[in-house]
Amino acid sequence: MTRHVHDMRTGFGEPPISVANGGGGSGFVLNRELAADTLSIGRLELCRLLLMNDATYPWFILVPERPGIREIFELESGDRLSLINEIAQVSKAVGEIFDPDKLNVAAIGNLVPQLHVHIVARFHSDPVWPMPMWGRTPRYPYKAAAAAAVRGQVRQHLGGALLEIA
């Protein structure tokens, strides 16, 4: 397994790319702040998969495409199981691609109430290790080529499980 450099700041400088709305759940609309702060990778069966537009960390977000959901317990039982499986699937891919020292997985939602789960690859060498990384460093948006490379690696690892966003 090749260990990839965690800090892709060489790829900063591009503005965020909006993510199209729509998706699997009837009436689902991606939160405006998530759309502005992320780059789309695609969809899994339940969730929209996004890349946080910050090259400091390999940082991914899963958003269940169900309208009005703020908390995991609000999902129907089948969707809760799907969410856990998709978290595991994306976490495994991120672990294989980036070989982090630790994966941080969190559903916080204090600033963005729409249910979303962060999956962040953390490294002993990252700027704030071992502290939480939320709001501690400036954002460095990806350049288009760097974002395309990360998105391509994730798409390749997820294979046929990843769907295009309608």
Globally, the shape reads globular
The tally of structural domains comes to 1
Q: Share of helix among residues?
A: 25-40%
Helix/strand/pairing category: alpha+beta
> CATH top level?
Alpha Beta
- Total number of β-strand segments? 5
Let me know the largest β-sheet. Answer: 5 strands, antiparallel
Strand order within the widest beta sheet: 1-2-3-5-4
Rg from Cα: 15 Å
What's the rounded overall pLDDT mean? Answer: 86
CATH superfamily grouping = HIT-like
Q: Unreliable stretches, pLDDT < 50, 5 or more residues?
A: 1-25
CATH fold node name: HIT family, subunit A
Query: How many DSSP H or I helices?
Result: 3
| CATH architecture type | 2-Layer Sandwich
Order of helices and strands: HEEEHEEH
Quote the beta fraction: 15-25%
Structure report:
With 166 residues, the protein is of the alpha+beta class. The protein has one domain: HIT-like (HIT family, subunit A), CATH 3.30.428. It contains three helices and five strands; from the N terminus they run H-E-E-E-H-E-E-H. The model is unreliable at 1-25 (pLDDT under 50). 26% of the residues lie in helices and 17% in strands. The chain is globular and about 40 Å long. It has helices at 32-37, 77-98, 144-158, and strands at 38-43, 47-52, 59-64, 102-106, 117-122. The protein has a five-stranded antiparallel beta sheet. Helix 2 (77-98) packs across helix 3 (144-158).
